[in-house]
Structure to design on (548 residues):
RNA sequence: GCGCCUGUAGCUCAGUGGAUAGAGUACAAGUUUCCGGAACUUGGGGUCGGAGGUUCGAAUCCUCUCAGGCGCGCCA
């Protein structure tokens, strides 16, 4: 689109002037006086002081400008202040951009960055020892949306839930239920909460099983009856539930341990098997296989199982595996990345950390703990607010922000959720098109296109141009998020789009515009706005209502 | 003690080297013969936790420091 064209022309000019090929940052200034696009490239170049050339930023900017020549799509290009280059696009060129949106329709916003490579996003992955919580909802919304964005960027994306369906916490689950039924001694570390009692009742025929076997049954049950439905309720469909237990069944755990030994990164000491994670920057080596003396029995740690898991997944040819973790797992990052590197997949794992969701009740913070039974489930949230509000809420925050959540206020606040502001804009767009007799999505060929001579020049109102400028940014936004993973930018983009549309709506009549041509052009603008907003909402997993 | 995250308007948060630091919300005052007022307009409100430093330029990078969160197991 326009931005790429301008970048290309700038690069050409710099090449002619024999400047080194540095990254050109083309920003879209908030301040209209600074043009439609702006770059600080001259300030950057003057800093390089390449060779014995030493020019002021203003001089460099002027030179670049003179080498650009007359670009037909610009109405003005100028050097301002310390050496900024500001570009002003001709309004008719800007409105001509709408043609591309109309042509692409539901595909508008997609890009080819991924070139068909495979990426896996692993998220939620909560232990199957209880219902999903608020924090899981946050991770779910972020992971699912990131997967959508990657998919729109030309990657083949897999959504994975790693199920820790064996090990201590599952044995503990079995014990907890046995204890609730009075068949085992109650212990401090047991899970509490109503669902444990329900499980004891539901599985009363199975209480003669040992804790581990019962735990396996319960974990499988919770996965199917609690976790999968809750994920679906918030709009998440996983491609794969990867079972930790299956790693044992397929002997992948021993294989991973053997491989690490072969490569010289695993060694035995004090009866345990260790991974030399200090070679990868960890503060100490980590245990892969416990010693009989240490925990009373020799068994693989969670860490070794997870290594086997990553080795198996990456062995399928993924370009990357992106894991979304709670901040409480931060200390685990170095050793896992180290193990992945040791197995020959260095740099293939990216981790997004989300900070904790703090829970407040009656103004007092409640520590969320599955063991203590103090937490808010995702289902409880979804009873208070609908799926769209919940997803939008979670996606409004950057992952590193610490969210304070007050369920008492969630319902009341849900009316103020910006999601309704955004959805209302979409409903307004739909309504106008409906009254004009348009089909919901039309193609450029089937109807007069704003790129057509005559129509292109119709749109000149500041509110129209501001809206167009925002609409055409979606592809760059999506491509950027595919690289920096900052999915919350989408909610801000959607809110801004709604804002610009509401303003346009207030100041520009569509159906009874002054002329037929203007009406036609404005209808096209409404249609493109609807396409763009609809596509954005679809990436967010939020519905785009025709009416509210 | 060490490591990571956070500290920006009354409140909730954007903004990771650029121009006069933004948005929502709250508060105040306005806007409907006409496409949906769940909207729009205007206004007040900031020592960007603090102190130094680097730079033509710092909320952003570096050092120190204060406050909060999380982690530091042969748990997961």
């Amino acid at each position: 689109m326009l931005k790429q064209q301008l970048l290309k022309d700038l690069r050409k000019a710099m090449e002619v002037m024999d400047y080194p090929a540095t990254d050109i940052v083309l920003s879209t200034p908030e301040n209209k006086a600074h043009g439609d696009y702006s770059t600080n490239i001259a300030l950057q170049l003057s800093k390089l002081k390449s060779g014995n050339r030493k020019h002021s930023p203003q001089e460099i900017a002027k030179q670049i400008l003179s080498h650009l020549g007359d670009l037909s799509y610009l109405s003005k290009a100028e050097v301002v202040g310390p050496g900024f280059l500001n570009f002003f696009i001709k309004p008719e060129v800007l409105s001509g951009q709408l043609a591309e949106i109309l042509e692409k329709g539901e595909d508008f916003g997609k890009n080819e960055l991924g070139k068909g490579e495979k990426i896996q996003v692993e998220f939620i992955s909560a232990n199957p020892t209880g219902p999903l919580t608020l924090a899981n909802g946050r991770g779910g919304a972020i992971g699912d949306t990131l997967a959508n964005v990657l998919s729109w960027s030309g990657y083949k994306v897999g959504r994975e839930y790693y199920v820790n369906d064996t090990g201590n916490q599952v044995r503990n689950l079995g014990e907890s239920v046995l204890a609730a039924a009075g068949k085992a001694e109650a212990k401090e570390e047991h899970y509490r909460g109503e669902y444990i009692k329900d499980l004891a009742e539901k599985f009363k025929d199975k209480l003669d099983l040992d804790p581990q076997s019962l735990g396996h049954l319960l974990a499988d049950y919770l996965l199917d009856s609690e976790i999968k439905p809750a994920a679906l309720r918030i709009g998440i469909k996983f491609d794969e539930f990867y079972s930790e237990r299956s790693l044992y069944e397929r002997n992948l755990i021993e294989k991973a341990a053997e491989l690490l030994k072969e490569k010289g990164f695993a060694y035995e000491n004090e009866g345990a098997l260790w991974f030399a994670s200090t070679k990868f920057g960890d503060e100490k080596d980590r245990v892969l296989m416990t010693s009989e003396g240490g925990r009373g029995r020799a068994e693989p740690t969670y860490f070794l199982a997870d290594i086997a898991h990553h080795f198996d997944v990456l062995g399928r040819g993924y370009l990357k595996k992106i894991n979304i973790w709670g901040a409480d797992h931060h200390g685990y990052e170095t050793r896992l990345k180290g193990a992945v590197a040791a197995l020959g997949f260095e740099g293939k794992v990216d981790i997004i950390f989300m900070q904790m969701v703090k829970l407040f009740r009656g103004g007092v913070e409640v520590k969320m703990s599955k063991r203590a039974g103090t937490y808010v489930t995702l289902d409880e949230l979804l009873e208070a607010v609908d799926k769209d509000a919940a997803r939008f809420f979670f996606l409004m925050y950057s992952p590193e922000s610490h969210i304070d959540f007050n369920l008492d206020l969630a319902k009341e606040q849900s009316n103020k959720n910006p999601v309704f502001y955004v959805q209302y804009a979409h409903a307004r767009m739909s309504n106008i098109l409906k009254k004009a007799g348009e089909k919901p999505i039309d193609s450029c060929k089937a109807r007069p296109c704003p790129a057509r001579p005559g129509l292109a020049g119709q749109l000149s109102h500041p509110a129209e141009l501001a809206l167009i400028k925002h609409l055409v940014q979606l592809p760059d936004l999506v491509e950027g998020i595919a690289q920096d993973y900052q999915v919350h930018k989408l909610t801000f983009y959607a809110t801004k789009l709604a804002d610009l549309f509401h303003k346009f709506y207030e100041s520009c009549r569509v159906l009874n515009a002054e002329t037929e041509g203007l009406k036609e052009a404005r209808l096209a603008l409404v249609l493109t706005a609807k396409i763009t907003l609809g596509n954005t909402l679809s990436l967010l997993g939020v519905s785009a209502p025709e009416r509210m």
Remarks:
- Chain A has a mean pLDDT of 89.
- The first strand of chain A starts at residue 26 and ends at 27.
- The two ends of chain A are 34 Å apart (CA to CA).
- The CA atoms of residues 458 and 518 of chain A lie 6 Å apart.
